[in-house]
Design a protein that fits this description.
Layout (H helix, E strand, L loop, with lengths): L12 E2 L11 E7 L2 E6 L8 E4 H15 L6
Antiparallel strand pairs: 1-2, 2-3, 3-4
């Protein structure tokens, strides 16, 4: 059985590293317990990336280690 997460009411936040230009806008929504969703703000109707919160945390830690601090808010 496949279920689809309804993200129509999700509160999306842009990365603090997004420059606000047309090409660099990553957004996340973490208002669903245990899950974090990511999307490209240029194509908000496109498919989001949905990860377990622990997986997202590991991803962010890896990015921080490689490129400095990454924050969303």
């Amino acid at each position: 059985m496949t279920s689809t997460l309804d993200l129509s009411s999700a509160a999306w936040r842009k990365s603090s590293y997004s420059d606000g230009g047309a090409n660099n806008c990553v957004e996340v929504a973490d208002s669903y317990p245990g899950l974090v969703s990511g999307r490209d703000s240029k194509t908000p109707a496109g498919p989001p990336l949905i990860l377990a919160a622990a997986t997202w945390s590991g991803f962010v830690d890896g990015v921080k280690a490689e490129a400095g601090v990454l924050t969303f808010g």
